[in-house]
Amino acid sequence: MYVARFILELQTPLHCGGGEDVTQDQPVSRDAFGFWRIPGSSVAGILRGWMRDQTDIRGVESRLFGKQEGVNCLASLIWCEDARLLDFDEVPVVEKVMGGQEVAIPQGPYIRDHVRLGLGTEVAEEGGKFDEEIVPPGARFALELRLDAWEKAATSEEREVFCRLCAALASGHIRLGGKRASGYGRVRSLYAACRHFDLDTEEGMIAWLNLAPAPRFANGDGREVALPDAAPPQWRGEGLSADLELPLTCDAPLIVGGVNVRDEADIICLMTPCLDYAQKRVEPRYTLPGSSLRGVLRHRVYRVAEALDMDAAVCVNGLFGHASGAEGAAGKVCVEDVLLTAGTPAHLQHVAIDRFTGGALSGALFDECPLWQDGLEVPLRLEVRELTDTEARLLLHALLDLAEGALPVGNGVNRGNGVLRLRGMEQGWRKALENVRCDAMRQGERLDRHDASMCRRWLEDIEGDRP
């Protein structure tokens, strides 16, 4: 038997649906005591999907995770426990509750409001207002996986794939939970270890029976198994897949509305609570949400497709996903939240003027608190998967508009707010692109960004099949 243990820290918000709260549209899953959890079934499904995409070994998915096809059934060899929330002292909160101890970590709820805009009108769709609950960045969970081949020993192939799976989880290559198109569920591993227990021997059985409770192993818990170095993800599908990091800067006031614990003004900027285990507190951070950035790109792609006389709705649905009754498709574009490091925002007052009298409209005095800091860093992290050349071309044009400051983000864009630019643009495109991190593959060929002829050939190929 192989046992692997992890302490995983959220780098972006997490949403595992399934909670019961009639006051929310999309609550998160909680345990019987009301604490956040990641169900083992959710973990197993995500790991199985990763294995399907990353492993060429025939039949290993069914052998490790089981299958049910008529009378031909196989039990799963991999056991996934629920990922359990850790308190600020890294003790599972369930253990503290069962032991009558006080739990320090807050449980929210932390809510995000959303509104869905019509592609053609760019105003809110009817019934398009909804909210969702998140588990905040910084939260830590203990997770245990086991490889147990029941009445037989696991094969060397099965052990190898299990260790590769653990290495991918430990390296942060696997996102947990739902809403991954909005960048949710990215984790980093603070602790990852694997032990082997030979249950055919007395020594191994005693070690298994005396196994220390999670989240960490104790000295003498089984035989240590070294996890392999995690290889970068292999994108096996056709088309273009890439991970991008664009270092943007803000050249104007920036405000994206949302829940703000400080209640600073009438129009406020979204803040995300982040759990700080070192300081044992919640630290609110101003946030440019991935869903807003994704929405901005989605609308610009729609406009570009319209200008090219393409079926804009089909292009947008192919890139960003859609849901229609029983049919739908997942999006190919993932944009993460940007947690900003700005200090105190500017406090601005406004008044609407009556165009007939020249005086202030009754009740039209309001204020806002945009973030306004010279050179504010907005590091944009973007993932795309299996784009056709047409989809890649459309998204590239939207990203170019964003990088040049022609695609503002957030509230008040009609009065100059939300202008973003790629860092170094004042020195030209060549200098600015040196700051971009890009790992990309197209038609099985991985990009060498330092090879100018390859970059030129890729761009010519992508731009070549114009409608």
How far the N terminus sits from the C terminus, by CA atoms, comes to: 57 Å
The number of distinct helices, counting runs of at least 4 residues, comes to 10
- Rounded radius of gyration (Å): 25 Å
| Largest sheet features | 7 strands, antiparallel
Percentage of residues assigned to helices: 10-25%
Low-confidence parts: none
* Number of distinct beta strands: 24
Classify the secondary structure makeup into a structural class: alpha+beta
Q: What multimeric state do the chains show? A: single chain
**β-strand amount:** 25-35%
Mean pLDDT: 85
| Whole-number count of domains | 2
Shape descriptor reads globular
What does it look like?
This protein folds into two domains: 2-225, Alpha-Beta Plaits; 240-464, no CATH class. Helix content is 24%, strand content 29%. It starts with a strand and ends with a helix. The chain is α+β, with helices and mostly antiparallel strands and 467 residues long. It is globular, with a radius of gyration of 25 Å.
Question: Could you provide a short overview of the structure?
Answer:
The chain has helices spanning 40-54, 60-65, 93-98, 156-170, 202-209, 290-307, 312-320, 389-403, 429-433, 452-464, and strands at residues 2-10, 37-38, 67-69, 72-74, 78-80, 83-85, 110-117, 124-134, 140-147, 187-196, 223-225, 240-250, 271-276, 281-288, 322-324, 327-329, 333-335, 338-339, 348-353, 360-368, 376-387, 420-422, 437-442, 445-446.
